[in-house]
Each structure stands twice: as structure tokens, then as C-alpha cells.
Amino acid sequence: MARPASSFRCSECGWSTVKWVGRCGECQQWGTVADVSEPASLARALKPVAPIGERRARPIAEIDVEDSAAHRPSGISEFDRVLGGGIVAGAAILLSGEPGVGKSTLLLEVAQRVAGTGRRVLYVSAEESAAQVRLRAGRTGALSPELYLAAETDLATVLGQVDAVDPDLLIVDSVQTVSSSQSDGLPGQPSQVREVASTLIRLAKERQLPVLIVGHVTKDGTIAGPRLLEHLVDVVCQFGGDRQTSLRFVRALKNRFGPTDEVGCFEMTGDGIAEVPDPSGLFLSKNRAAVSGTCVTVALEGRRALPVEVQALVVESKAPQPRRVVNGVEPSRVAMILAVLERRAGLRKLAEHDVYVSTVGGMRLIEPAADLAIAVAIASAVRDRAVPHEFAAFGEISLAGEVRPVTAARQRAAEAGRLGYSTILDEGAGSVRAAVERAMLASTSARERELDAAF
């Protein structure tokens, strides 16, 4: 008998090593590496097997892709936008997101839309009972005679349900709660997740059955389980959003059948989830009166250009250390913009004032294209001059006070023009001082026009 070889494996990601270490070399988690003794296997030469029938290699031009690679719409245009046009037959799609963000609600809506077209859908819930899912379906209106529901946690039983129902779409919620008797360990461990995912993907390819799989995330936002899970599936989608708002976004992190820079917008309501085909007005203030300390920028979410209103408030501080409170923007970039405004744009004594910067609608701006709008909003708050409503700004600010160009500038300007923003402030301003002065001049002209109209 071969002597057992001692090896150590991480319980989080499956990384292995020949000696024990306190920290995993792959996922960098502490205390997850344990001793796993495996019998040493003897290398055996594999005998070649002659392929027969359709398994034989053929010239690539003779491969038929009309049925296997065609996108079939799911009925939700925002979800189809992210997938590249719809669901491909035999595709394995992984949808991840934080707890309570609405993954199950979204997939139940997808199941109802697909079942409404006459295709049979099997929804397997391994987290909730069938009665709980039925209650949610009744509340959201996701009832259809072609939608079949099963509450199973055993992989073999799930496969039996697929044979009995013969669906056109399979939804499994979730992969971390389904277990297989062919693998050791509890549900959710890397070995179990690997076995369940591999079986479902093999089922999808053999039967040309599209499979939607829900995946949990860890506390740092990554998908729980082995990293191999993301490599096995065809599409990896991330469903997220701010819990304080009802807006949700679906982004494709990996897509073998379409682009990875599309974003789908949804809104959580009391009746379920609703798609938002034009989210332009969600991040703008409803107040039509001109108020100082506001400026509109055009952010880029995937391929979408969205106008976002940035608000700033600057007040004199009595504390020895003035406050810097931000919401929706990067604190480090706001601190840099304040320094550039004081040094390059002539806004003095900003270090003696409390500065508050926020976005409207819970939108998070992480790209440098919002620098110019933040600078204009702060300057407007300092000088107490309101920027006109037809004014929009986008551009990156350097430490030298230069306004640098940003990506997709034409698309941003076109979207701003479509929404009625006739004055665009971008890299053409040259410097942040010139941009601020131009914005203040526009505010003065707008005020004079208002006075002339009043008299």
C-alpha cells in the first residue's frame, strides 16, 4: 500500500501546499489551512479513446452555431442588456450579491417572464421552503403555469427534478446551500461548491439547458467558495446597490457571449423589482430653483452616461480641526480638490471651513471625471453663487491645476445635450481657475437675466 502523503489545503479557496502555513497563499485568509492526508497515487498511462459520431473533431467553419449560440430574450430588457442580448442555450450564469440585495427576487422575475413565453422553468430553492417562495411570487405577481418550484438541497434530487420536469431554464438558489453525496464536507465548503457547480455546468452543456446559479459573497465582496467557480461558468454577474436607496445595478464581470461593460438598472419596489430603462432623472434634484453649491456632472456606468448632481456646503468652522464629510465620492479626491482650489484657483481659507460634499440619489462617483463638477460645486458654495441649470461639467483635475480630458467625452456631452444642458464645461477650460471663473460668470449672467425678467 502506498504511504499516505501529507498535504495541507485551504478550506476557503482550495489552495494546497506541502507544509502548514498560518495564512493562505491564494486568498490570504488566516487559519484556514488544514492537514489533508491523501494517498499517493501512481502515475498510469492513459489509453487513447477513439471519438465517434458528433464527438469527432471537425473544421471550425462546419460547426453549427445557429441554435446553440443564439441569444433568447428573458423578457427583462435590462437583464438582457447585461447578458449581451439574452440567455444562450447551455450557458451557466452565476449571479452574486450581498444578502438582502434582491437576487432571488430578480431571478424569480426572470423565471416568470420566461415562463410567460411558454417555455418551462424549474426554480430550485435550497434556502427557502416552497411555501415561502410561493408567498413572494404571489406578492410580486410571478405566478405562471409553466413555472415549476422545488425546495431541494441534495444535488441528486435536483438532477431527478430536472429529469422529471424537463425544463427550458433551470435556476438554482444557491450553489453554496446544495450538497452532493459524492463529495465530503458540509454545504458551502470549497469541495462541495466545486462538485455541485461542475455537475450543474456539465448538465447545462450536455442538455443545452441554460442554468442560472445564485452565489453568496464573503464580507470583502468576493464570491464565496473556490476561485475555480468563476472560471467554470460562462457569465459572472454582480447584483448590488446601496441599501439606503431602492436602486440596484447588475454588472457583468465575465461574459463569454457579450460585452462586460454594460450595466442594467433596476428599482426595488413593494411589488418586487422593476427595470429602469432611462435612469437619467434618478440622480438629479427635483428643486428647479437655482441653489448655490450644486453642479451636474455626467458619470459613465459601463456604456451608460448618467447625469449626477453633486452638492457642496461650505460653512465657517469653530473647531480647531475643520470637518470633511463626504457621501458618494472619494474622500481623498475631495481633499486633493480642496488643496488645488486653494493653491491654484485663489479660493483662500478653505482650511478654516467645514466642507460637506454629497451626491443625489445615492450614486457613487469613483472616476476622476467628477473632479471638475466637485470643484465647481465647492466654489459655488464658497462664493454663494448658483450655477445655472443648463450648466454641466466633467473633467479630471491635476495637482498643477490643469483640467485633463476624460474617456468617452463625446458620449458624455451628447447625453448632457440630450437632457438640455447647453453649456458644457470640460477640458477646453484649460485650468481649474478658468473653469471656476467661467462658472461664476455664468451664474452672474443667469442672475442678471432673472432680474431683467422680473422688471
UniProtKB/TrEMBL annotation:
Entry keywords, A to Z: ATP-binding, DNA damage, DNA repair, DNA-binding, Hydrolase, Metal-binding, Nucleotide-binding, Stress response, Zinc, Zinc-finger
GO BP term, pick one: recombinational repair
Molecular function GO labels: ATP binding; ATP-dependent DNA damage sensor activity; damaged DNA binding; hydrolase activity; zinc ion binding
Residue span of region Lon-protease-like: 354-455
InterPro entries: AAA+_ATPase, DNA_repair_RadA, P-loop_NTPase, RecA_ATP-bd, Ribosomal_Su5_D2-typ_SF, Ribsml_uS5_D2-typ_fold_subgr, Rubredoxin_2
Record-level GO cellular component terms: cytosol
Domain (RecA family profile) ranges: 68-217
Motif mapping: RadA KNRFG motif: 254-258
UniProt-listed SMART domains: AAA (SM00382)
NCBIfam families (UniProt xref): sms
Family affiliation: Belongs to the RecA family. RadA subfamily.
Domain notes: The middle region has homology to RecA with ATPase motifs including the RadA KNRFG motif, while the C-terminus is homologous to Lon protease.
The protein's role, per its UniProt record: Plays a role in repairing double-strand DNA breaks, probably involving stabilizing or processing branched DNA or blocked replication forks.
Name this protein carries in UniProt: DNA repair protein RadA
Taxonomic source organism: Agromyces protaetiae
Organism lineage string: Bacteria, Bacillati, Actinomycetota, Actinomycetes, Micrococcales
